Amino acid sequence: MPTVDDAIWRTVLEGARRYPSPHNSQPIKVRIVGEFEAHVFYDLDLGLPAENYGIPFGHVCAGVFLESLATVAAAKGYRVVEALDHADMDFDAVDRLHPLGTVRLEPREPTDEDRVRLAAYDARQTSRRPYDSKPVPDAVVSAVAQVAESSGQDFREGNEPELVKRIVRVNQETLFADLRNDAVHAEILQWLRYSEDDARARGDGLSAKTMLMPGPVLKFAIQHRGLWDAPVVGRLIRRTYLNTMRGVTQVGWLEGRFATPADYVEAGRAFMRVWLEFTLQGVFLHPFGTVITNPGSHAEFVRAAGIDESGDSMAWMLFRFGYSKVPPVAHRRAIEEMLIP
Predict the structure, then answer these.
(1) pLDDT tens, 42-60?
(2) Are residues 70 and 160 both part of a single domain?
(3) What's the predicted TM-score (pTM) here?
């Protein structure tokens, strides 16, 4: 069999592999089949099916990757043409690589805007640090709302102190409630990295450093769930977590159609565009995914924010946003681990 010239794809994927993913699990795999063509898959072994909406968010992650791929390719001089497969994911399937479709690169001249977007993509980070309480200006919020609208989504902002406080508290309570679920607990355990050396060596997962918790404290808290209700230890663990939430004055969420795999992919694409716009404006964000995927917490969030989820509409993404110091770097696997021979 002749060897495929993969130099162009490697150049593009070297950047695209830094796409964000739930728990930094990096489930997208790519098989290069021609100089300008590749097949894209979702590795089911790297998904999060234990969580409610865990399966739909596999497709959301695919949309995030596809937008990341398009962003990197555009600045490198290529348009990405997609032929997607929107079949449901079956996490019990024998074949652990779920096909997402075929992507093809077509040469085009990069623009200054393409280069600016790539710079934002390269600078994008999740910040779990305390924020500095400085409100994000209305002009920035409006710019983000326009990006969301152009992608078929509605961006909403919550800045009332009581609402923000309530959502931050719900997020904290949800984290501890979810970790009492044995399946979710087991799923999260495999993605926690208690030391920076381990995080760097594996190139994935949630490191104690990025979560702003000492490794031994994180390990003790996760492995001793029964102590969370203890008067002293429980309060200490909660206080340690909530300490990272200081200075939050605004939360945001995305609402839109969220009923089919095609919807989920487009939602992920829209979220990445919104995130890049925030980054262009010098604003950090931190997704509150567990509030969305936990049914009780989701209902409480919807009630508190006065959201209408009638029909196929859903508030499917929630996050805090604002200004903070630059957060620690989340490591990524080498490109070889993304590629399928």
Answers:
(1) 999 999 998 778 889 999 9
(2) no
(3) 0.95
